[in-house]
Design goal:
252 residues; alpha/beta; TIM Barrel; five-stranded parallel sheet; four-stranded mixed sheet; 7 helices; 15% strand
Length: 252
């Protein structure tokens, strides 16, 4: 069994120093109601941590809107347009990379926002989540003009503001072994990474004001991933972490 002692010790140090840890949860690639989505919503309710689902606009259907109407703890965000890769074969996957015409990307981001607003109304948060967490800087500058208030990608942010009027709030913990088994990453490696993330925040090496983000993908979870996420959320919330969500408090 994996030893979580180092993480527990780090969380205890946060509490001794009177530090708080805003914790948020983003889950990508939602399109419709499904057994996996319902399991996600049940885990969110059980842990009392709201889950923000990044919805693929081109493929989203009314079953998703119907399900979300009865689950206030599941919060929709805009996940690009169609989650289609436009990068050349020798480059990393991206839907909104610098190789695409800016006008086309603006159009896709705009119609994605529009379609999801039609499905979810005021439930939709003005958060743009680019597929594969990659985005052209030119498009970033345009997002506030389309009504977006937040950009969410991955890894600790370099600055609070991605552009004027556009806050950056990223994810930091991804439990999936995307380059290998596509199951749970080595648990000891994950616990070590999370511990070091917290140590960097406490020491001022990264932005401690940015909500710490858990990133999941409900459609590909196996039992080990579900179990790890449940345990991690419980451990964090039993310490200095506090649930954080868009639409609450003084942030977007």
């Amino acid at each position: 069994m994996t030893d979580w002692t180092a993480l527990h010790d780090e969380l205890a140090q946060w509490e001794r120093e009177g530090l708080s840890l805003p914790l948020w949860w983003r889950d990508d690639d939602a399109i419709s109601d499904s057994a996996a989505l319902r399991q996600l919503a049940q885990l969110s309710q059980k842990t009392q941590l709201p889950v923000h689902i990044a919805v693929i606009p081109a493929h989203a259907d009314t079953s998703l809107a119907d399900f979300l109407s009865g689950t206030p703890h599941v919060i929709p965000l805009v996940h690009g347009w169609a989650h289609e890769n436009h990068a050349p074969p020798d480059q990393k996957k991206t839907e909104f990379g610098a190789h695409r015409p800016l006008a086309e990307m603006i159009e896709d981001a705009d119609r994605g926002f529009g379609k999801l607003h039609g499905l979810f109304g005021s439930r939709l948060q003005p958060v743009f989540v680019p597929p594969w967490n990659r985005i052209s800087p030119d498009l970033v500058a345009e997002l506030p003009h389309l009504g977006f208030k937040v950009l969410s990608t991955a890894t600790p942010r370099k600055s609070r503001w991605a552009a004027e009027g556009l806050e950056q709030i990223n994810t930091h913990i991804d439990p999936i072994d995307w380059k290998g088994t596509r199951g749970l990453l080595d648990e000891a490696l994950l616990v070590d990474r999370i511990t070091r993330l917290l140590q960097d925040r406490r020491a001022g090496r990264s932005d401690a004001d940015e909500p710490l983000g858990l990133l999941t993908h409900h459609l590909v979870h196996d039992p080990a991933i579900w179990s790890f996420c449940e345990r991690l959320i419980a451990v964090l919330l039993s310490g200095p972490a506090q649930p954080w969500q868009f639409g609450k408090g003084d942030r977007p």
